[in-house]
Structure formats: structure tokens, C-alpha cells
Write a structure and sequence with these properties.
heterodimer, A: alpha+beta, Chemotaxis protein chec, seven-stranded antiparallel beta sheet, 3 helices, B: alpha/beta, Rossmann fold, 5 strands
Chain lengths: 150, 120
């Protein structure tokens, strides 16, 4: 299962999402170098893939980084406060676009669940981690993970 | 001025779509709706020149929205802006009467490439 959703494809999806939606052509999403620090205040955004090929695409980052992502998406200033609604909307939409593009890699197309954002990632029964990319956005850690249950 | 209805359950994504339309040079009159049911009501009350709609939404999905529009007799030009751009989704969109499907993530250039032939 991992072969159809390889790490290069997931990285290409994440890189294109960040460059098109957040950073322009600057390419600020890079592989994380060295050991990934443990998240102190993590926030998860995920979307479930439903149908014959089931799975999940999830992003994890520190809450302040999720706020920074929301500000970047909304073209807000660095010192502007992001509302909870905009934080959930923006961070969830990044997961939604990543998940939609991961779904397109699968041999049959089911449906996409609605994006969710929470401080805890609920377990998905029977899932196995297909890919886990440890990335750096503006120097802050972001993990992009894909599980498949097909 | 062209009147567009942008339909997406994500307010952030609606903002990005509207911003991208401007970046692509389309200074259109914009209205917004947050799901297919709201979109259907908006078209029925005041039909726009074009609809840009997400696919995956609560209440009523984009494809249900499009089919409902056509069933109600509206031939409003309709395009999807969705994170799901697989060949199967594109076939389904075309079969239901969509003029185009723009896959997220998108760029202003990508918008122009898809919308210009439709305007012509």
C-alpha cells in the first residue's frame, strides 16, 4: 500500500500546497534536518479518506505555528490575532487539500471526509502508517502523515 | 461586470478563491455561499453569470448542487474548485454539466488557463 503513496509524492503534494496557498514561489517547506523535537503544544488537522481505499491524511505542528499558517493564508500581519474559527478553518483546509490530492493517488476514488482540527488525533481502527514526512516550515516542525486502511 | 457566486464551506478558501480571481485579473462582482443548499438558494433568488463551487461540503455537496441546479432548469455556467482533481472526478463533473474543474492548490495562472477559454 505504501508504494502507491510514496514519500516523494506526498512531499510534492505538501510542497505544492504550501507554495500555492501560503508562501508563493519561495519554497519555505523543507525536509527537517536532524531529530524532530517532541511537540509541546501540538495541533492536528486531518481529513479521512472513505470508500474502498480508506485512510487519513494529517498534519501536526505546534499551535503557534498553526496560528502562523492561518495568518499567512489570510494575509494577516504577524501581530494580528487569529480567531479560533479562522484557525480551525485555515489549518483544516490545508489538511483538506493535502488529503484530496493524496486520494487522487489511490486506484479507486471514494469520498473525502470533512476536515477536522483538534489538540488530539483520534485513533483510526486498523490503520497502518503509510508515510510520515518530517518537515520544516519557516524553521518550525510540521509532520505530514498518511495512513491507509484499504 | 461578470457576477460570480463562490460556494465553499471554508471561509478561508472563499477568501483565497476571491483573492486569486483578482490576481488573475478578474475584477468580478462576487457573492458567497457556504454550502450547496445556500448556493442553490442564491442562484434561485438572483442568478449569477457563473458559479465557482467546492465539491466536498456539508448540507449539500457541490455535485448535488450542480445536479439540483440543472434539474431546476438553471443552465448557469458552473465550475468546480476542489481538492479532488482525479480523472474520475473530472468525468463526473463534466457529465453533470460542469464547464471546468480547477484543482486545489491553484495559482492565478491556473485560474486564467481554465477560465479564459470559457469567457471566449
Amino acid at each position: 500500500m505504501s508504494a502507491m503513496v510514496d514519500s516523494d509524492s506526498v512531499y510534492a503534494i505538501a510542497e505544492s500546497v504550501f507554495s500555492a496557498m501560503i508562501d508563493g514561489d519561495e519554497g519555505l517547506l523543507l525536509p527537517w534536518e536532524g531529530d524532530l523535537p517532541q511537540f509541546a503544544d501540538p495541533l492536528y488537522a486531518w481529513v479521512d479518506l472513505l470508500g474502498e481505499w480508506q485512510g487519513r491524511a494529517a498534519l501536526t505542528t505546534e499551535a503557534p505555528t498553526a496560528h502562523a499558517l492561518a495568518r499567512a493564508l489570510l494575509m494577516m500581519g504577524d501581530d494580528e490575532v487569529v480567531s479560533d474559527a479562522d484557525l480551525i478553518d485555515a489549518f483544516g483546509e490545508i489538511a483538506n487539500v493535502v488529503g484530496g490530492n493524496v486520494k487522487a493517488l489511490l486506484p479507486t476514488q471514494g469520498t473525502l471526509g470533512l476536515p477536522r482540527v483538534d489538540a488530539v488525533l483520534p485513533p483510526h481502527e486498523g490503520g497502518s502508517l503509510s508515510q510520515e514526512l518530517r518537515l520544516s516550515w519557516r524553521g518550525q516542525p510540521i509532520v505530514v502523515a498518511v495512513w491507509l486502511f484499504g | 461586470m461578470i457576477r460570480v457566486l463562490v460556494v465553499d464551506d471554508s471561509r478561508v478558501m472563499r477568501q483565497i478563491v476571491i483573492r486569486t480571481l483578482r490576481q488573475a485579473g478578474y475584477d468580478w462582482d462576487v457573492r458567497e455561499a457556504s454550502n450547496g443548499a445556500e448556493g442553490l438558494a442564491a442562484v434561485q433568488s438572483d442568478e449569477p453569470d457563473v458559479v465557482l463551487s467546492d465539491w466536498n461540503m456539508p448540507e449539500m455537496t457541490g455535485i448535488e448542487f450542480l445536479k439540483s441546479l440543472r434539474a431546476a432548469g438553471f443552465g448557469t455556467p458552473f465550475g468546480f474548485v476542489t481538492s479532488e482533481g482525479s480523472p474520475q472526478m473530472r468525468e463526473q463533473a463534466e457529465a453533470a454539466g460542469a464547464l471546468f474543474l480547477i484543482a486545489k492548490p491553484f495559482t492565478a495562472e491556473g485560474f486564467r488557463d481554465v477560465i479564459e477559454p470559457v469567457l471566449a
